[in-house]
Amino acid sequence: MADRTVPNIPGTRCLPEVETYLKQQVSMILRTRNNQFPGSQPVSFTRDHLYKNLLNKDYLVCEKSDGLRVLLFILINPETNEEGSFLISRENEFYHLPDFHFPRNEKNFDLSHNGTIVDGELVYSKNPITGLKEIRYLIFDCLAMDMISVMHKNLFKRLYHAQHEFHKPYNELRKKFPDACKDWLFKLDFKNMTQPFKIHKIFNEMKNLTYISDGLILTCCETPYISGTDPTLLKWKPAEENTIDFKIKLEFPKFIDNDLPKHDPNREYFNYDIKPKFKLYVWKGGDNSHQNENIENNIKRNGGEYKNSFQNYDEWNDLEVSDKQWNELKNSGESFNGRIAECRQNKDGNWEMLRFRDDKMNGNHINVVLKILKSIEDSVTKQELIDLEPQIKARWEERERIKRKAQQQQHDFVHINNNNNHHNNLRNTIIPEKRRRESEDNQLNKKPNQFIAPVNDDNEEYYESDGFEEEPSHK
Predict the structure, then answer these.
(1) Quick check: 362 and 340 in contact, CB under 8 A?
(2) What is the pTM of this model?
(3) Considering only Cβ atoms within 10 Å of each terminal Cβ, which end of the chain, N or C, has fewer?
(4) How wide is the angle at C-alpha 390 spanned by C-alphas 386 and 395, nearest 5°?
(5) What's the CA gap between 165 and 103, in Å, rounded?
(6) Contact 169, 103 (CB under 8 A)
(7) pLDDT score at 293
(8) Would you say 93 and 139 are in contact if contact means Cβ atoms under 8 Å apart?
(9) Are 204 and 386 contacting, i.e. CB atoms less than 8 angstroms apart?
(10) Which residue numbers are catalytic?
(11) Rounded-to-integer distance, Cα 299 and Cα 301, Å
(12) Are 318 and 278 in contact (CB under 8 A)?
């Protein structure tokens, strides 16, 4: 099985008063609740999405990396004027990153971002040159740029901000000052995205990735960035890769020493030398009254023994653990009872563990678990996605024709009004037909991997995909 280890969050957890201040700043910029993680969450891909979404709306697709989801937040301290870089976990915890610098543009590296928030994932990546495992942050969306929320913008514009205004200046800085950046805790990359009628190329590209990828993320081009669960943001995995996060409970057998009298308190005790039963518990939601309790208070409350709380959890199923796995777990010296584990069903229907998810406070909610199980039962195969590509492309091109026609009608309407209202300045107000035709032709002849945002108030913005060129035609 591939190494599915998730990186620990780099940096240092912020002090409570600092974290409170940062949460307030994020809430003020994004206009979201300061006690909740502001990132969006996808829904599992079902057969309904295949036709209702992919055929009827514009989407961009990227591979789904198997890593740790975090937001990257850049903020300047108003009192010291120092630049601060922070990671925001899914538990809405803030971690300070020392030494990082994110320049605002490529011409002046002294200017820093301030109030910028991008979305991405931390992964372990194998360096193709050194062969060493390193941490990379893969950017795939943008929430705010310099104290201004961009969540209301469409995907093309958000990607433009993330790519041109954040990632490119950072890249230039690393190129020009590699020694100054070599000790930074991780490197940044920008996720390549493409149209859903090129999904087969994403599957081909996955073989060359330097990190683990277990599916696809499909993001709607037309909708805003939604904090919380976004019903248009789709997560596709092959059936065998669909996983669920459960809480683990270990049940050790009791040993009874029949040589001791029944009233002797040492007559019964847990036998920790024998492999226990591993039970999976599913989260029902709600707060745990003891979730922030320290170890000392836990021991005092439980009569001298530390006990994990399974409040708001119900028993779900058994976890299959081989004798070899148990010996490896036991020899590690770690504690496993009460930890969150990412699990999946094998071909025999039994649950097996892939890894621990110590970055998560709770397992998946019961409603999420039921949706994932439905997604597995109603799974869409890789080949079905590829087979639908011609229909997706035809629908995409038809929507583009409709948009161009509407834009042309709007253009003509504006010029008719200009003719009526400014008939004395015709030569200055009417664009020559030849120039207009040339402009349209230039737009239509752009490279197929260059995505142009719909015409609007700032139509100069566009996201450039850096891969998946059209294959040459064979005569």
Answers:
(1) yes
(2) 0.75
(3) C
(4) 120
(5) 9
(6) yes
(7) 60
(8) no
(9) no
(10) 64
(11) 5
(12) yes
- The residue that leads in pLDDT, 346 or 4, is 346
Residue range 11-59, pLDDT digits in tens: 999 999 999 999 999 999 999 887 889 999 999 898 899 989 999 999 9
Helices of type H across 365-388: 366-377, 382-387
CA distance 366 to 293: 24
* Per-residue CA distances from 336 to 247, 326, 329, 339 (Å): 10, 11, 8, 6
Tokens of 359: 């970055």
Q: Given pLDDT bands bounded at 50, 70 and 90, which one contains residue 411?
A: confident
Q: 120 by DSSP, 3-state: which?
A: strand
Residue 404: name the closest of 362, 360, 436, 364 by CA: 436
Compute the distance between CA of residue 31 and CA of residue 226 in angstroms, rounded to an integer: 12
Using CA atoms, how far apart are residues 53 and 392, in angstroms rounded to an integer? 10
Q: Which residue has the tokens 């280890």?
A: 5
Looking at this protein, which amino acid is placed at residue 440?
A: E
Sheet holding 59-65, edge to edge: 40-44, 228-236, 213-220, 59-65
Question: What DSSP character marks residue 431?
Answer: P
Q: Which two tokens stand for residue 344?
A: 């999946």
Single-letter residue type at 439: S
* The two three-digit tokens of residue 129, written as one number: 């040159």
| CB neighbours of residue 286 within 10 Å | 10
What is the radius of gyration, based on Cα positions, of the chain? 27
CA angle 64, 192, 29 (to 5 degrees): 80
Contact criterion met (CB below 8 Å) for 313 and 282: yes
Element (H, E) at 136: strand 133-145
Token readout for 248 is 């683990």
Q: What is the three-class DSSP state of 145?
A: strand
Average pLDDT over residues 76-102: 94
Q: Judge whether 86 and 356 are in contact, CB under 8 Å.
A: no
For residues 342 and 358, give the distance between their C-alpha atoms in angstroms, rounded to a whole number. Answer: 10
